[in-house]
Specification:
With 604 residues, the protein is of the alpha+beta class. The chain is built from 16 helices and 18 strands. The protein has helices at 3-7, 16-25, 27-65, 67-71, 75-82, 87-104, 139-145, 187-191, 227-236, 275-401, 405-433, 445-455, 457-463, 482-501, 533-538, 556-566; strands at residues 108-113, 118-121, 150-155, 162-172, 175-185, 199-203, 209-212, 220-221, 245-246, 254-261, 266-273, 441-444, 465-470, 477-480, 507-515, 519-526, 570-575, 581-588. The strands form 5 sheets. It has a 5-stranded antiparallel beta sheet. It has a 5-stranded mixed beta sheet with strand order 13-15-16-18-17. A hairpin with a 5-residue loop joins strand 17 (570-575) and strand 18 (581-588). Helix 10 packs antiparallel against helix 11 and helix 12 (445-455) packs across helix 14 (482-501). The longest helix has 127 residues, at 275-401. The protein is rod-shaped. The chain starts with a helix and ends in a 16-residue tail after the last strand. Bound molecules: adenosine-5'-diphosphate. Adenosine-5'-diphosphate binds at residues 495-496, 499, 526, 528, 530-531, 535, 539, 544-547, 552-558, 581. Pfam families: dCache_1, HATPase_c, HisKA. Residues 320-368 form a coiled coil. Its EC number is 2.7.13.3. One of its GO terms (molecular function) is kinase activity.
C-alpha cells in the first residue's frame, strides 16, 4: 500500500462503534440528572398537594370543633335533658338538631344524657336513628362529661360510616346534664383525590389507616401495635374489625411524604408511585437515545460523505496517474519513434550523400569512359595535324632555302589553321572532363550540338555516316549546364554511331528540333538496328549494355537520364516505325542570351 493510499485510508461504519459507546456513556449521567430532577419535582408537587389536603382536612374539622359547645347552650336541648320523661321536649330537640344538622352540613348531631343514652338526634326520623341508643363507651362521651372537648374518629355503630366526633357537655349551671355530639362526615375528603396516581393516607394515633383514596388500604396497620392500643380498640370499636391487617407497601414502589397533625394525633401521608418518575425519565432517556441515534446517523452520514469524497479523490488520482502512465508510455513510444525517425533521416541523408557521391562517380566514370573512347580519336585527330604541321614545317625550311617565300607563307598559314584545330580539340576535351556544379543557365543548343558532332567527326567520316540536320539558324536557347548538355549530346551521338556500325550502308543520322511554348525538343534518329526489347525496358539502368566489355560500360544513358533530370528536362527513347532508334531530349526554353558561343568553347 502506497503512502498516499495509507493517507486516504477510508473511514468505515465500524469507526462509529467507539463514538457510539462514548455517547451511550452519557446516558447514565443523563438518567441520574433526570431522576433527580423529576424526583425533586414530584416531591415538590406532593408537598403542595399534602399541604392542600391537610389544610382542607383541618379546615373541615375546625369548622365543627366549637359547634357542640355553642349548640349546647340552646335552651331547647337543655330542656330535653332536664325533662327526660317529656317526649315532646325531646322530639322538639330532635327537630331543632335536624335543622341545625342541615344548616351546618354535619353528618349527625345528637344529644345524650349523663348515662350516654341518646335522647334526641338529627336522624331521629331515619331507619338508623340514634335515638334510644347508648354511646357511653365512646371516648368522646367520657372526655366531654369531664369538661373537655371530646374528640374521636370511628365507624358509626349503626351507620357503619366513618366520622369524626366532637362532643361537648351541656351544662345546667356547673352540672353536666349530658353531651351534645356533632359527627362530621370525612368520606368526602377521600373523594377529593379522584383518580390521581398519588395516594393519600391518614393514619390515626394507633397507626391505623382511617382515610385513604385507595379502598384496599383502609383500616390497615402501618406499624406494630402495643397491647394497650389493642385493648383500647377492642373497647372503643372505632374500626369495623378487631383483626387489623398490616399494610404492605413494596420497597421502592412509593415515594412517601408525611405531615403530623399534632392536635388530633393524626398523620397524613402522600404516596406517589415511583413510576411517576420512571416514565418521564424513560422519556428523557428515550429522547437521549433518539438524539444519540440522530448524532450517530449524522456522524455516519458525514463519514460516508467523507468516504465518498476520499473515494472520488482516490479515483481521480488513480485516473490521473493512469493518464500520466499512458502519457509516459506514449511519450516513450514517441521518443523511440522519434529516435528511429532521426536514425532513418540520418540513414537517408547518408544514403542520399552516398547516392550523390555514386552519381558523381558515375558521371565521372562515364566521362572517363567517354574520354577513353575519345582518346583514340583525339590522338588520331591530334597526330594527323601534328604530322601535317611537321611536314608543312619541313617543307617551309626547304622552300626558305630556295627563296620561295610565297610558298613558305602558304605553308605557315596551313600550320596556323592546323594548330587552331588542335586547340579546339583540346578545348572539347577539357570541357568534357570538367565537373559542372553550376545551376542551369541559358545556353544555345546548336553550338553544343556542333561540339558533340565535332568530337565524333573523325569516326563519322570513317563510317561514312550521312548527317541530316533539320535545325533553325537562330540560336535555340535552352536551360542547361553547358558541359552537361555537351556530354549528353556526345553520348547520344556516340551511341548512334555504335548502332550504325552494326549495319551496312546507307548509314544516316537525323538531327531535328521542334519548339513549343516552354520547351525545346531535339530528336536524334539513326537508321541502325534500333533498341532491342530488353534495351527499351532497361537502357537507363546503370551498367546495362548490349555491347562487349571493351565497347561499352552501360553508363551512358544512365548518366544522360540523370543529367537531364538535374536540368529539369527529359530523355525519351523509342524505335522509329521505319527502323532505327529515336532519342528525344526535351529541354526547358531558356532566356535569349547575347553570345551563343561560350568564350572557351569555339566551334570546330
Ligand atoms: P553503352 O553504350 O556503354 O552500352 P549506354 O547506356 O549508352 O551504354 O547504352 C545502353 C544500351 O542501349 C546499349 O548497349 C544499346 O543496346 C542501347 N542503345 C543505346 N543507343 C542506341 C541506339 N542509337 N540504337 C540502338 N541501341 C541503342
Amino acid at each position: 500500500m502506497s503512502e498516499f493510499q495509507l493517507y486516504l485510508k477510508r473511514p468505515r461504519w465500524r469507526r462509529l462503534v467507539p463514538f457510539a459507546l462514548a455517547l451511550a456513556a452519557l446516558l447514565w449521567p443523563l438518567k441520574y440528572l433526570a431522576e433527580n430532577h423529576y424526583h425533586a419535582k414530584l416531591i415538590e408537587q406532593n408537598r403542595q398537594t399534602l399541604d392542600l389536603y391537610v389544610a382542607n382536612l383541618l379546615g373541615t374539622l375546625r369548622g365543627y370543633e366549637n359547634l357542640p359547645a355553642i349548640l349546647g347552650n340552646l335552651p331547647v336541648l337543655r330542656n330535653a335533658l332536664l325533662s327526660p320523661q317529656n317526649s315532646a321536649s325531646q322530639e322538639l330537640a330532635s327537630h331543632v338538631l335536624k335543622q341545625l344538622q342541615q344548616q351546618t352540613g354535619a353528618d349527625v348531631i345528637y344529644l345524650m344524657d349523663a348515662q350516654g343514652l341518646t335522647l334526641a338526634a338529627s336522624n331521629w326520623d331515619q331507619k338508623d336513628s340514634f335515638v334510644g341508643r347508648n354511646f357511653i363507651f365512646r371516648p368522646y362521651f367520657r372526655d366531654a362529661m369531664d369538661g373537655r372537648l371530646g374528640r374521636f374518629f370511628g365507624l358509626g355503630n349503626t351507620s357503619d360510616k366513618r366520622g369524626y366526633y366532637f362532643g361537648s357537655a351541656v351544662y345546667s349551671g356547673s352540672e353536666a346534664l349530658g353531651v351534645l355530639v356533632v359527627k362530621v362526615d370525612l368520606d368526602h375528603t377521600e373523594t377529593l383525590w379522584g383518580n390521581a396516581p398519588e395516594r393519600l393516607l391518614v393514619t390515626d394515633g394507633q397507626g391505623v389507616v382511617i382515610l385513604t383514596s385507595h379502598a384496599d388500604w383502609r383500616f390497615r396497620l402501618t406499624r406494630e401495635q402495643t397491647d394497650q392500643e389493642r385493648a383500647a380498640i377492642a373497647f372503643h370499636k372505632p374500626y369495623p374489625t378487631q383483626e387489623l391487617q398490616p399494610l404492605e407497601l413494596g420497597a421502592g414502589v412509593w415515594l412517601s411524604q408525611q405531615r403530623e397533625l399534632e392536635e388530633i394525633d393524626w398523620t397524613v401521608s402522600i404516596l406517589a408511585p415511583t413510576s411517576l418518575i420512571d416514565r418521564p425519565v424513560r422519556s428523557v432517556i428515550g429522547g437521549g437515545v433518539i438524539a444519540l441515534l440522530a448524532v450517530l446517523l449524522l456522524f455516519g452520514l458525514w463519514l460516508q460523505r467523507q468516504r465518498h469524497y476520499l473515494e472520488r479523490i482516490d479515483l481521480s488520482t488513480k485516473a490521473r496517474r493512469d493518464l500520466e502512465l499512458r502519457v509516459q508510455e506514449r511519450t516513450r513510444a514517441l521518443e523511440t519513434l522519434n529516435s528511429r525517425l532521426k536514425q532513418e533521416v540520418l540513414e537517408r541523408e547518408h544514403a542520399q550523400q552516398e547516392l550523390v557521391r555514386a552519381q558523381d562517380e558515375l558521371v565521372q566514370a562515364g566521362k572517363l569512359s567517354a574520354l577513353g573512347t575519345m582518346s583514340a580519336s583525339i590522338s588520331h585527330e591530334l597526330n594527323q595535324p601534328l604530322a601535317a604541321i611537321r611536314s608543312y614545317a619541313d617543307n617551309a625550311r626547304v622552300l626558305m632555302e630556295h627563296q620561295r617565300h610565297h610558298d613558305v607563307h602558304g605553308n605557315l598559314q596551313q600550320i596556323s589553321a592546323l594548330t587552331a584545330r588542335m586547340a579546339s580539340i583540346i578545348a572539347h576535351l577539357r570541357a568534357f572532363a570538367r565537373r559542372d556544379r553550376h545551376a542551369p543557365e541559358s545556353i544555345a543548343l546548336q553550338p553544343a550540338l556542333e561540339d558533340a558532332i565535332a568530337l565524333h567527326s573523325q569516326r563519322r567520316r570513317a563510317m561514312d555516316v550521312e548527317l541530316i540536320r533539320d535545325l533553325p539558324d537562330a540560336p535555340l536557347w535552352v536551360q542547361a549546364g553547358e558541359t552537361r548538355l555537351r556530354q549528353v549530346l556526345s553520348n547520344l551521338i556516340g551511341n548512334a554511331l555504335d548502332a550504325l556500325a552494326e549495319k551496312p550502308q546507307p548509314r544516316k543520322l537525323w538531327l531535328h528540333t521542334t519548339q513549343t511554348e516552354d520547351s525545346i525538343e531535339l530528336r536524334i534518329r539513326d537508321n541502325g538496328p534500333g533498341f532491342s526489347d530488353e534495351a527499351l525496358q532497361r537502357a537507363c539502368e546503370p551498367f546495362f549494355t548490349t555491347k562487349t566489355s571493351t565497347q561499352g560500360l552501360g553508363l551512358g544513358l544512365a548518366i544522360c537520364d540523370s543529367l537531364m533530370r538535374a536540368l529539369d528536362g527529359e530523355l525519351l527513347f523509342e524505335n522509329h516505325p521505319q527502323g532505327g532508334a529515336v532519342l528525344t531530349l526535351r529541354l526547358r526554353t531558356g532566356a535569349p542570351g547575347v553570345n551563343p558561343y561560350p568564350p572557351e568553347d569555339l566551334p570546330a
